[in-house]
């Protein structure tokens, strides 16, 4: 009963002093003087605006990646009580007092600091000695570029943290696999792998590379498991083995089926990451409910779901478009800018500059601003009236309509005349009868692209519609070119005869809509000028919003890509380039993204040695000559899978990318490469230094090399931390490579 | 895997297939009598070969050389203009027309040749399945296909000879593989993928040999050497030879000149750089032209016209112009002195690396000038103008001249030095953005001063013409580039040209995911009802069967591999089948992947016909998969006659299905006249199965 009183209550704690020391050193190196400089540093100018928008709950679209990273940065702002009131317009601008610089930079710095114990643990889990693990962690600690990158409001350090966390949890999981599958810790590490992967992907799409690598490694390990004949195919003690505390010693012999293993991995490594990824977007969309600067990229339906902006205008307008409806038509493409179908009293010039002739009828364009001339009236060709009858007769898919321009009451028309800028397409005009035996061809068939049935009603905002010309079967299309002076630089609209399948430039949707009430032109003009107001709201489902936002993020392209500090992937290995992050407005103090040269070079050498040695072993093993013991070979291979594999997947894809690249894109790859150094060193000392003398020599060499790494770190720390300020001569001395751009103030 | 008595039967099948393919390719060859689609390009290039005019194309020359050769042999004189699709051959002389028809003849012949190897390769991989894949080819990039299939066939054949290495037939097939690789590379760069396929296969092979401990290392070395010789050295030599022939045949100046560097141009008869002699080192007072080093970069140019209102400062325009013109001439002057350097008595002073100079436009006497106004098109760069009167300007006219990879104080060589001009006041670099100016700039190319200090060809220049009466002329033959340099340069130009083929905004282009589902075809000629229309579209039955089979194959291969890994005991017949699925099928599937996936990463304009090489592999995969599956299921039937009957019936059904669908869609490939398919009275009315097809 009171048996527990017989023995004292004992709490045994194992503390790995190495880990604690590393963490403390990491925190010091990353957090020291964090709020200096109190100015906008490099890409903070970019991420900062999103943090501000989060604070103000204003919707935005960022094509650089998914929202999780931005949200984490915003969390820092939230904890520091940031109100979002700062104009992020210029690198080097002083922060005002309301910006909590320290807490904004805290999360990246913490992530950067925690990478150091993670690196230590990874090397331990790869079954290398604590000495090697300590060495690897110290190299990460003394890597100037990683320090710089984690001390500011940037995403790379968070990304590297999640990548390393994912790798570590997978290794823990895999090492537990051998003796205690389906134990609680087995599950924890497996699930943590999936969660960390999805976080990495959520911070930046670069995380996908590591995720794919881990999936491939997991697949490979599972493939080896398939060969294990002791495991049954289906069934087995799933429940039994999931709760090992219930069982006794016989647990060790129980076999869990392959199917269970497969399902567990599928759940943790695929389903959970996908769900997490979706949840990031869910939170993102829930947080940002106000309309903002990027609204116009989205479809009308999406805009209508945001508070303010379009929602205020469209709130409560009738849903179904009927004969007599007054509408504005927005092109769905939204490129080069959002615009609405437009017409005005000016006509096409009789002859264009290149001598071609036009119909000289009224211009029809696409106009990027709201205007009374954007209003069109849907008319039934069989009837004269321009008002909505009571009850309204809705327009359905396949109906033939005429579109009447509200202000000029001319009919939308197209005919076999070449368009002004796209001579292969037909000109679209508002018809003017010049009595030149060119009859009006103003009948259009309404085709709802996203219909569910063939009798769908044309709906405001929701329906995406093609207008097919009845006589020529041309499709109303935005060509994207902008007209010359005579067309006031508005965008050209044409009738496309060779409509090659679906393209968004041919699809339109109704944005503003009301039922027309006035038959007289004068009254109607007054009506057109009055603002719309009515009474239904349209809510999109989360999945529809997610799909649209995801698609926009992936397809949005920024035009001007040249940057002063952009570099090519080839420059990174040798660090032929740097990035100036910040320069003190008066003194020579400055911050650069500049790595520890010695570490980079050693990492390259380690990678080369690793590849050459592996090839050598591989060829020799093929000839049945075994240089090293089998288990050492297995360790060597699995370390390579993680480190060389991690380096390759995070580096090589950049050669195929066409976007602007910067040195900081290389940092995840570099981290993996650095982890390879202690692995190679330990291998060399264990298996290639045979005699005691050579071992001692080797150790002495390593110590010497380590101290020079520390020296290089110290040399460059002024440009890493931005303190102290250096003189011109000292700065010139730091320019170890001609291609480095160290800023020297003209005296 | 039938009894060995079969070869006679298989040979008969092969002959039948060859005959059928002959018939299908040559049927109605002369129609339509006008230029279809890419015939404009390739026909034109064939003509260039016959006229020996130099031209530039983004593909290696072998394919066009063969076309040219065919035209030459048939007596075509190369005068037909091939201006745009739809031009009628009738308007032109009879010979030209015939020659052109011969092209088609030849290309069809090659297409035909590609059949038999295909059937053969299949039959060697897996007898009897060839027939399934046969009636599938409708229109192809025939020459490439031929070499491609040739390479795969020889590779497979060579594998088949692996049991008796270094025999005559082994050597024959190995070197034939090499020859075909060179051919495939020589026609299009897509040939690289088949090189990759063969390379991977060879590495696998060698790895196998290495693991064979009964083979001594010396023998292994021999194997390695033989492969290096036949698969690397031989193709490289042939490939180089193709280019050697190309450059020897085309020795006259033509439309391709502008794409190449000045030194290259000096080799072409008729070019103004041919056989001229000019002073070698640049001196003050020299009159020069400067050529931008980017491809088709143009000469630094200026003229009296000013930048219009609202475009930077209203000063004289400076552009890059592709043609040779008096307005391209500039005079090099010292920044400070206005001394008349043309005075013959004054001493010659050479321009050195790092000097500060002033460039005066010869016609208008204005200085090359830049300032911190934004450039007309590239807003982030600075505007470059012509400024000053009679050579008197301001300090914004000074430029530092630097040669790439040189030390200060060195002289600057005409043609060979790559020069960078840095604006002294703002530190920006003179460059050409490659964008075309609007009408006010006469549609010449924009010249800007870029503040981003990068050594791209955009910001590098070389001096081409050089006039200085005080200096001795040297013959440009000194500059004659070696063959290796020519080869390298032409490859650089081709690669840049290829990546330069970007789709325009809003242009509807073919996407790689369209291809396997046969989403959209390619219109070869004819739009309206009355035109003779040819529409390139895969046989949908075959295409969809292929797509379905890829999935089926994946399923089969995975289940087979898992079964083997789990140690399921198989009978010897099943083992043989599984070997075919994993080894043979794996090779073909790899071929499909290698020829398909890279297109997803390409930024250039893509067309439907780029899928054809992958399609060949996918068709072969279909053959293998169905054959294996039929055999597998037939194996369950107890009497072997019933099994054979089921197997034969299955194959026959597939072949008939394909034949019938070919019959249905044949008007597309042979051309048709009459109402569009959207019209119910058209014979094609029922065949428009997808809305995206336009015939």
From TrEMBL, chain A:
<feature type="transmembrane region" description="Helical">
    <location>
        <begin position="68"/>
        <end position="88"/>
    </location>
</feature>
<dbReference type="InterPro" id="IPR032421">
    <property type="entry name" value="PMT_4TMC"/>
</dbReference>
<feature type="transmembrane region" description="Helical">
    <location>
        <begin position="208"/>
        <end position="225"/>
    </location>
</feature>
<feature type="transmembrane region" description="Helical">
    <location>
        <begin position="126"/>
        <end position="142"/>
    </location>
</feature>
<feature type="transmembrane region" description="Helical">
    <location>
        <begin position="702"/>
        <end position="721"/>
    </location>
</feature>
<feature type="transmembrane region" description="Helical">
    <location>
        <begin position="597"/>
        <end position="619"/>
    </location>
</feature>
<feature type="domain" description="MIR">
    <location>
        <begin position="454"/>
        <end position="513"/>
    </location>
</feature>
<dbReference type="GO" id="GO:0005789">
    <property type="term" value="C:endoplasmic reticulum membrane"/>
</dbReference>
<dbReference type="Pfam" id="PF02815">
    <property type="entry name" value="MIR"/>
</dbReference>
<keyword id="KW-0808">Transferase</keyword>
<dbReference type="InterPro" id="IPR016093">
    <property type="entry name" value="MIR_motif"/>
</dbReference>
<dbReference type="InterPro" id="IPR003342">
    <property type="entry name" value="ArnT-like_N"/>
</dbReference>
<protein>
    <recommendedName>
        <fullName>Protein O-mannosyl-transferase 1</fullName>
        <ecNumber>2.4.1.109</ecNumber>
    </recommendedName>
</protein>
<keyword id="KW-0256">Endoplasmic reticulum</keyword>
<feature type="domain" description="MIR">
    <location>
        <begin position="318"/>
        <end position="381"/>
    </location>
</feature>
<comment type="similarity">
    <text>Belongs to the glycosyltransferase 39 family.</text>
</comment>
<dbReference type="Pfam" id="PF16192">
    <property type="entry name" value="PMT_4TMC"/>
</dbReference>
<comment type="pathway">
    <text>Protein modification; protein glycosylation.</text>
</comment>
<feature type="transmembrane region" description="Helical">
    <location>
        <begin position="186"/>
        <end position="203"/>
    </location>
</feature>
<dbReference type="InterPro" id="IPR036300">
    <property type="entry name" value="MIR_dom_sf"/>
</dbReference>
<dbReference type="InterPro" id="IPR027005">
    <property type="entry name" value="PMT-like"/>
</dbReference>
<feature type="transmembrane region" description="Helical">
    <location>
        <begin position="100"/>
        <end position="120"/>
    </location>
</feature>
From TrEMBL, chain B:
<feature type="transmembrane region" description="Helical">
    <location>
        <begin position="584"/>
        <end position="607"/>
    </location>
</feature>
<keyword id="KW-0812">Transmembrane</keyword>
<feature type="transmembrane region" description="Helical">
    <location>
        <begin position="224"/>
        <end position="245"/>
    </location>
</feature>
<keyword id="KW-0808">Transferase</keyword>
<feature type="transmembrane region" description="Helical">
    <location>
        <begin position="646"/>
        <end position="665"/>
    </location>
</feature>
<dbReference type="InterPro" id="IPR036300">
    <property type="entry name" value="MIR_dom_sf"/>
</dbReference>
<dbReference type="InterPro" id="IPR032421">
    <property type="entry name" value="PMT_4TMC"/>
</dbReference>
<keyword id="KW-1133">Transmembrane helix</keyword>
<feature type="domain" description="MIR">
    <location>
        <begin position="409"/>
        <end position="466"/>
    </location>
</feature>
<dbReference type="GO" id="GO:0005789">
    <property type="term" value="C:endoplasmic reticulum membrane"/>
</dbReference>
<keyword id="KW-0328">Glycosyltransferase</keyword>
<feature type="transmembrane region" description="Helical">
    <location>
        <begin position="541"/>
        <end position="564"/>
    </location>
</feature>
<feature type="domain" description="MIR">
    <location>
        <begin position="348"/>
        <end position="404"/>
    </location>
</feature>
<dbReference type="InterPro" id="IPR027005">
    <property type="entry name" value="PMT-like"/>
</dbReference>
<dbReference type="InterPro" id="IPR003342">
    <property type="entry name" value="ArnT-like_N"/>
</dbReference>
<feature type="transmembrane region" description="Helical">
    <location>
        <begin position="103"/>
        <end position="125"/>
    </location>
</feature>
<dbReference type="Pfam" id="PF02366">
    <property type="entry name" value="PMT"/>
</dbReference>
<dbReference type="Pfam" id="PF02815">
    <property type="entry name" value="MIR"/>
</dbReference>
<keyword id="KW-0732">Signal</keyword>
<comment type="pathway">
    <text>Protein modification; protein glycosylation.</text>
</comment>
<feature type="domain" description="MIR">
    <location>
        <begin position="279"/>
        <end position="335"/>
    </location>
</feature>
<dbReference type="Pfam" id="PF16192">
    <property type="entry name" value="PMT_4TMC"/>
</dbReference>
């Amino acid at each position: 009963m009171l048996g527990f009183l017989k023995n004292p209550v004992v709490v045994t704690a194992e503390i790995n002093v190495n880990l604690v020391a590393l963490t403390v050193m990491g925190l010091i190196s990353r957090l020291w003087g964090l709020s200096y400089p109190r100015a906008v540093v490099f890409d903070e100018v970019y991420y900062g605006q999103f943090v501000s928008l989060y604070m103000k709950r204003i919707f935005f679209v960022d094509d650089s990646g998914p929202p999780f990273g931005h949200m984490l940065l915003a969390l820092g702002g939230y904890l520091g009580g940031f109100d979002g009131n700062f104009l992020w317009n210029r690198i080097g601008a002083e922060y005002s007092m309301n910006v909590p610089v320290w807490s904004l930079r805290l999360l990246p710095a913490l992530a950067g600091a925690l990478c150091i114990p993670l690196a230590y643990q990874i090397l331990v889990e790869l079954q290398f000695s604590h000495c090697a693990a300590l060495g690897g962690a110290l190299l990460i600690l003394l890597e100037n570029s990683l320090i710089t990158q984690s001390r500011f409001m940037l995403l790379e350090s968070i990304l590297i943290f999640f990548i390393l966390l994912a790798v570590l949890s997978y290794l823990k999981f895999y090492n537990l696999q051998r003796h205690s599958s389906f134990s609680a810790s087995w599950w924890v590490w497996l699930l943590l792998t999936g969660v960390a992967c999805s976080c990495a992907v959520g911070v930046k799409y670069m995380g996908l590379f590591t995720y794919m690598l881990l999936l491939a490694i997991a697949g490979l390990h599972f493939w080896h498991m398939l060969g294990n004949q002791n495991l049954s195919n289906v069934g087995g003690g799933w429940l039994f083995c999931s709760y090992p505390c219930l069982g006794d010693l016989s647990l060790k012999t129980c076999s869990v089926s392959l199917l269970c293993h497969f399902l567990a991995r599928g759940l943790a490594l695929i389903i959970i990451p996908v769900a997490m990824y979706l949840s990031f977007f869910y939170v993102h969309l829930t947080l940002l409910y106000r309309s903002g600067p990027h609204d116009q990229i989205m479809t009308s339906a999406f805009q209508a779901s945001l508070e303010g902006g379009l929602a205020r205008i469209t709130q409560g307008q009738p849903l179904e478009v009927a004969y007599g409806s007054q509408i504005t038509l927005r092109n769905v493409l939204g490129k080069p800018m959002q615009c609405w179908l437009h017409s005005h009293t000016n006509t096409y010039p009789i002859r264009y500059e290149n001598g071609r002739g036009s119909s000289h009828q009224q211009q029809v364009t696409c106009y990027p601003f709201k205007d009374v001339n954007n209003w069109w009236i849907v008319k039934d060709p069989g009837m004269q009236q321009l008002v909505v009858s009571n009850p309204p007769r809705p327009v359905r898919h396949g109906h033939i309509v005429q579109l009447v321009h509200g202000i000029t009451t001319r009919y939308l028309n197209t005919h076999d005349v070449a368009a002004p800028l796209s001579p292969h397409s037909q000109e679209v005009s508002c018809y003017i009868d010049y009595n030149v035996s060119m009859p009006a061809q103003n009948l259009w068939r309404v085709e709802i692209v996203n219909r569910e049935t063939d009798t769908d009603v044309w709906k405001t905002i929701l329906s995406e519609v093609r207008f097919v010309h009845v006589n020529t079967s041309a499709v109303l299309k935005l060509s994207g070119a902008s007209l010359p002076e005579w067309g006031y630089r508005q965008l050209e609209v044409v009738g496309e005869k060779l409509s090659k399948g679906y393209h968004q430039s041919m699809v339109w949707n109704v944005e503003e809509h009301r039922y027309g009430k006035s038959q007289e032109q004068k009254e109607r003009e007054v009506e057109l000028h009055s603002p719309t107001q009515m009474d239904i709201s349209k809510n999109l489902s989360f999945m529809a919003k997610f799909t649209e936002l995801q698609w926009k993020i992936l397809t949005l392209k920024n035009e001007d890509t040249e940057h002063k500090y952009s570099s090519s992937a080839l420059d990174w290995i040798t660090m032929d380039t740097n990035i100036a992050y910040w320069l003190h407005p008066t003194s020579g103090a400055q911050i650069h993204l500049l790595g520890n040269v010695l570490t980079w070079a050693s990492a390259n050498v380690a990678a080369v040695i690793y590849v050459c040695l592996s090839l050598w072993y591989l060829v020799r093993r093929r000839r049945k000559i075994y240089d090293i013991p089998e288990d050492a070979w297995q360790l060597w291979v699995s370390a390579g899978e993680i480190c060389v594999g991690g380096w390759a997947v995070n580096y090589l894809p950049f050669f195929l990318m066409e976007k602007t690249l910067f040195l900081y894109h290389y940092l995840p790859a570099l981290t993996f490469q650095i982890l390879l150094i202690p692995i190679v060193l330990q291998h060399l000392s264990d298996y290639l230094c045979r005699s005691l003398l050579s071992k001692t020599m080797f150790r002495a060499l390593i110590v010497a090399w380590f101290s020079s790494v520390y020296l290089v770190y110290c040399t460059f720390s002024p440009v890493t931390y931005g303190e102290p300020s250096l003189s011109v001569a000292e700065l010139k001395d730091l320019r170890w490579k001609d291609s480095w751009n160290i800023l020297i103030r003209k005296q | 895997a039938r009894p060995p008595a079969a070869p006679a039967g298989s040979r008969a099948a092969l002959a039948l297939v060859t005959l059928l393919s002959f018939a299908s390719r040559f049927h109605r060859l002369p129609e339509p009598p006008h230029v279809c689609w890419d015939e404009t390009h390739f026909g034109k290039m064939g003509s260039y070969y016959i006229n020996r005019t130099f031209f530039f194309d983004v593909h290696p020359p072998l394919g066009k050389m063969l076309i040219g050769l065919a035209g030459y042999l048939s007596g075509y004189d190369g005068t037909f203009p091939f201006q745009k699709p739809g031009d009628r051959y009738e308007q032109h002389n009879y010979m030209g027309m015939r020659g052109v028809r011969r092209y088609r003849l030849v290309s069809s012949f090659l297409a035909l040749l590609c059949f038999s190897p295909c059937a053969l390769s299949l039959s060697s991989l897996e007898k009897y399945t060839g027939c399934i894949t046969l009636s599938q080819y409708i229109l192809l990039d025939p020459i490439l296909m031929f070499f491609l299939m040739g390479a795969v066939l020889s590779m497979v054949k060579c594998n088949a000879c692996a049991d008796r290495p270094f025999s005559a037939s082994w050597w024959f097939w190995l070197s034939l593989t090499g020859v075909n690789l060179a051919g495939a590379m020589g026609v299009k760069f897509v040939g690289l993928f088949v090189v990759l396929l063969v390379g991977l296969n060879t590495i696998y092979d060698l790895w196998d040999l290495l693991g064979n401990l009964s083979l001594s290392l010396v023998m292994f070395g021999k194997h390695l050497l033989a492969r290096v010789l036949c698969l690397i050295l031989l193709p490289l030599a042939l490939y180089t030879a193709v280019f050697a022939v190309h450059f020897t045949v085309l020795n006259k100046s033509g439309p391709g000149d502008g794409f190449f560097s000045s030194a290259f141009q000096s080799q072409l008869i008729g070019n103004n750089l041919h056989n001229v002699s000019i002073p070698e080192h640049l001196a003050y007072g020299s009159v020069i032209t400067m050529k931008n080093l980017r491809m088709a970069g143009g000469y630094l140019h200026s003229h009296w016209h000013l930048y219009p209102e609202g475009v930077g400062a209203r000063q004289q325009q400076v552009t890059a112009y592709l043609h040779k013109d008096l307005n391209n001439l500039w005079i090099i002057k010292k920044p400070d002195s206005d001394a008349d350097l043309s005075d013959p008595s004054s001493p010659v002073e050479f321009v050195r690396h790092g000097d500060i100079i002033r460039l005066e436009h010869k016609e208008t006497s204005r200085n090359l000038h830049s300032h911190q106004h934004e450039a007309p098109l590239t807003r982030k760069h600075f505007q470059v103008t012509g400024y000053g009167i009679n050579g008197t300007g301001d300090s914004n006219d000074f430029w530092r001249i630097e040669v790439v990879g040189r030390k200060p104080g060195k002289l600057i060589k005409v043609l060979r030095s790559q020069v960078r001009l840095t604006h002294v006041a703002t530190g920006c670099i003179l460059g050409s953005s490659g964008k075309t100016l609007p009408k006010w700039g006469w549609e010449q190319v924009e010249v800007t001063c870029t503040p981003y200090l990068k050594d791209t060809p955009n910001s590098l220049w070389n001096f081409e013409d050089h006039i200085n009466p005080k200096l001795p002329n040297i013959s440009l033959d000194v500059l004659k580039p070696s063959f290796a340099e020519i080869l390298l340069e032409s490859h650089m130009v081709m690669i840049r040209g290829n990546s330069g083929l970007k789709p325009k905004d809003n242009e509807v282009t073919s996407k790689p995911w369209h291809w396997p589902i046969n989403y959209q075809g390619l219109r070869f000629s004819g739009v309206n009802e009355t035109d003779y229309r040819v529409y390139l579209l895969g046989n949908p039955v075959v295409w969809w069967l292929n797509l379905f089979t890829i999935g089926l194959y994946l399923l089969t291969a995975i289940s087979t591999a898992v079964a083997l890994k789990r140690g399921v005991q198989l009978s010897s017949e099943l083992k043989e089948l599984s070997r075919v699925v994993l080894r043979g099928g794996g090779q073909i599937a790899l071929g499909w992947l290698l020829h398909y996936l890279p297109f997803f990463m390409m930024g250039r304009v893509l067309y439907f016909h780029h899928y054809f090489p992958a399609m060949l592999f996918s068709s072969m995969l279909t053959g293998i998969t169905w054959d294996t599956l039929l055999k597998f299921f037939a194996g369950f039937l107890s009497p072997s006659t019933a099994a054979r009957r089921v197997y034969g019936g299955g194959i026959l059904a597939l072949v008939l299905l394909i034949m019938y669908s070919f019959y249905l869609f044949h008007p597309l490939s042979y051309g048709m006249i009459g109402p569009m398919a959207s019209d119910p009275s058209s014979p094609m009315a029922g065949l428009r199965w997808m809305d995206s097809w336009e015939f």
